[in-house]
Amino acid sequence: MDAPEKQPLLLIFRLLMAQLVGYEKAYEKADNMTRILIDARLGWGSGIGRYVANTVPLVAALLPTVVFDIMVARDDIDKAGALLSEASNIRVVPVDIEPFSLSEQLRFSALAKNYDLTWFTNYWVPLNFRHPFIAVVHDMLHQEPDLFPASRTKRMLSRFTFQHIARHASAICFGSRFSHREFARRFKCRAPTQITSYGIDHRDWELFDPEYPPEKKTKLLVVAAAKKHKNFEIAIQAFLDADLPEHWALTVITPDDKLRSSIDLSSLSRPSEQIEFLQGVSNTKLRKIYGEAAILLMPSLYEGFGLPLAEGLQAGAACISSTAGSLVELGQGAQVTYVNGNDLAGWIQAIRAECGRFDAQQVPLQEIRHNMQHATLFSWKNVAEKTAEVISGVLSARNNH
Q1: pTM of the model as a whole
Q2: Which of 12, 184, 232, 378 has an alpha carbon 20 to 30 Å from 278's alpha carbon atom?
Q3: Are strands 193-195 and 171-174 parallel, antiparallel or unpaired?
Q4: How many Cα atoms occupy the beta-carbon half-sphere of 326 within 13 Å?
Q5: 196 φ, ψ (degrees, to nearest 5)
Q6: Which residues does residue 298 pair with via DSSP β-bridges, in sequence order?
């Protein structure tokens, strides 16, 4: 029997051990849950940001037993929290690791070691990353030196990163068949792949009703980041050279400065009262502008998908697009006017023809409704279902292994 003076100490020791055992069991229970880390540090005002904001909550709802920790830049905490607050199995985790940085290469892997899977919402995976992961290839623009200005070092790192995910990813998702073909052409891929596409039924964006197309004004519209490959110059020049009646105007909309625009749009055109430049508009205002625009111009020389073209079709606009691979793919089955992205004369002719059709009221209602309905094929629900299927397949394969 223990000495009387030692009994209180023994009792305290046993209580502490009981508490520690309880904590250990609780930790084991939490650790047995499937946990996925989501890398969403790129600006939420970009196309990738729209992909994250719309896809992640739907995937989390489809996989309610999985816990998702989503890493965002500190500037995006409030925006991410507001968009993801309804999901009980999503936690927003702010980090100070800059995308495309040396810090990312050195520090990121340590953050993922306690997770079952990491979901990179873009392709930029650290080269030393060896934990199970899924990567999303939105495009391969970094491998197009004529279209995307980048240092030789960054371009080499980009190629090494593509090679890395081709060899080590648990699965790879692509935004279009075009991106998948380009990836397969350049790299030997060992991982399962899935074409998830994109959606246009954004969370805070009510789709237009094909039965009641919005009333149009004599406006042309360009929506894109201010980047070289977006080919703003030819759209603006073609609009000016088309010598349209004064009631026609062009609106050019770009995201905010966080995307580090690589061109100065105002320098691309002569001063003109017919051209309006807008930056960082809200989704509510953007939807209103889409609804008013009679014609959408999509002059981009390269796209991984081409959301503005799909959004323009759904808003009932007549669409003039470049012949970039993913844009032709997107418009299959719809009425779209395609012009080579470098053919200024062709763009001038197409703009004159479409504006003329509108002024003469020769755009058939059947055509407008058909295009609006075609665009609804691209839904975030479909994207989420395909993505959840990929995640479930990877987790199942790991468990079986």
Answers
A1: 0.86
A2: 378
A3: parallel
A4: 29
A5: -95, -25
A6: 321
3-class secondary structure, 207: coil
- The residue whose two tokens read 């892997």 is 109
pLDDT (tens place) for every residue of the chain, 401 residues total: 444 444 444 433 343 333 333 333 322 334 578 999 999 998 776 778 889 999 999 999 999 999 999 999 888 888 888 888 888 999 999 999 988 888 899 999 999 999 999 999 999 999 999 999 999 999 999 999 888 888 888 889 999 999 999 999 999 999 999 999 999 999 988 889 999 999 999 988 999 999 999 999 999 999 998 888 999 999 999 999 999 999 999 999 988 755 555 677 666 656 688 999 998 888 899 999 999 999 999 999 999 999 999 999 999 999 999 999 999 999 999 999 999 999 999 999 999 999 999 999 999 999 999 999 999 999 999 999 999 999 999 999 878 76
What phi and psi, each to the nearest 5 degrees, are found at residue 328? Answer: -65, -40
* Number of residues assigned to the chain: 401
What is the three-class DSSP state of 173? strand
